[in-house]
Design brief:
By secondary structure, the protein is of the alpha+beta class. It has helices at residues 2-23, 98-103, 108-126, 129-134, 136-151, 170-212, 214-229, 242-250, 253-264, 271-276, 288-294, 326-332, and strands at 24-27, 31-37, 40-41, 49-52, 58-64, 68-78, 84-95, 156-167. It is built from twelve helices and eight strands. A three-stranded antiparallel beta sheet has the order 3-2-5. It has a three-stranded antiparallel beta sheet with strand order 6-7-8. A hairpin with a 5-residue loop joins strand 6 (68-78) and strand 7. Helix 6 (170-212) packs across helix 7. The longest helix has 43 residues, at 170-212.
């Protein structure tokens, strides 16, 4: 009798151990437990820690409450301006109501993924290419609202949606590259033109200042010579104002010498203008006294011998030939010597 009682006690203990092992559950900190007893939802969500259920009667569903990062597969679509693009995204969501996530939707992860793909294709069709490339923040907000609206009934909250990459066709990439290159070239030309305008204004002011101070031009010339000589060149380039050459062409010797003296800063001989080739000098006319000194003395008539007069026959053209050129007629006639004066 005692032996049978001991066996019964041991059997009861084993049964209680098996029942306890089958009924005991442990819920982690980031999880929540939803209990269905005979298919009916039990009120209250089991929190983290140790909990007990009725074996073979209750069924515990653990729901992860962490933020889930789910990549959205790349979707092909046509933008509003008829450009074919391929866009992929990433979505961040979490479960806020474990009971709704278990009861209202079969698989909330799959449901959120499909909703994200359809919403992404819808956003592509409603947007322009420029918006997809530059205004992504607004598109992310719109995509988040489109996914979050049905997900609220599933006990899921959408934290954030981000568009990762926008793939364009090769032809569109080349077109955009040409457009960007043309825009940069336009800006470069505008900048160069603005620089030329500012430089011309400054040069005009410098020319005005130099016109008021003529010595400034000579100082600028010397500065240019120093700059060229600093390069250790064997040839020295000396700039010369072209306006001065034109002035020397029209000026008299005195004015030319004065202009050259003003430029060089030193005395200039009278031969400088003629050497420059710009000033013309008038031929010297001998005076009457010089002619008298150079003419031979013919006062003594005895020393002068008179040459016999000789007449040179004039060559005439034959009758009917007509008058010839003036140059030929003058060349055919020989000069007749005259008798020298006594």
């Amino acid at each position: 009798m005692v032996q049978e009682l001991v066996i019964a006690v041991i059997a009861a203990i084993c049964a209680l151990g098996l029942y306890g092992m089958s009924a005991a559950r442990v819920i982690k900190q980031y999880e929540r437990g939803v209990v269905l007893r005979l298919g009916q939802l039990r009120e209250g969500v089991r929190g983290p820690g140790f909990t007990m259920i009725v074996p073979f009667v209750d069924k515990l569903h653990k729901v992860n409450m962490q933020i889930v990062t789910m990549p959205v597969p790349a979707q092909d679509g046509i933008t509003r301006d008829n450009v074919t693009v391929r866009v992929d995204a990433v979505i961040y969501f979490k479960v806020v109501d474990a009971a709704d996530a278990v009861i209202r939707v079969e698989d909330y992860r799959f449901a959120v993924s499909q909703m994200a793909q359809t919403s992404l294709r819808s956003i592509i069709g409603k947007s322009d290419l420029d918006d997809l490339l530059s205004n992504r923040e607004k598109l992310n907000q719109g995509l988040e609202l489109m996914i979050d609206s049905p997900a609220i009934g599933w006990g899921v909250q959408i934290d954030r949606v981000e568009i990762k990459d926008v793939s364009l066709p090769e032809t569109m990439k080349r077109s955009m590259a040409r457009q960007a290159e043309a825009d940069r070239e336009r800006r470069a030309r505008v900048i160069n033109a603005d620089a030329e305008l500012q430089a011309s204004k400054k040069l005009a002011e410098a020319a005005k200042q130099m016109s008021e101070q003529p010595a400034a031009l000579q100082l600028r010339l010397l500065q240019t010579v120093v700059a060229v000589a600093a390069e250790k060149n064997s040839t020295l380039v000396l700039p010369f104002p072209v306006e001065l050459l034109r002035f020397l062409e029209r000026a008299t010797p005195a004015e030319a010498a004065q202009a050259v003296r003003a430029v060089s800063g030193g005395p200039v001989s009278s031969a400088v203008p003629s050497a420059l080739g710009g000033a013309r000098t008038e031929p010297r006319i001998p005076s009457e006294s010089a002619e008298r000194s150079e003419a031979p003395d013919v006062s003594d008539a005895s020393t002068v011998e008179a040459e016999p007069e000789s007449e040179a026959p004039l060559e005439t053209s034959p009758p009917g030939a007509g008058p010839g050129p003036v140059g030929e007629a003058s060349s055919s006639q020989k000069p007749v010597p005259t008798q020298p004066r006594a």
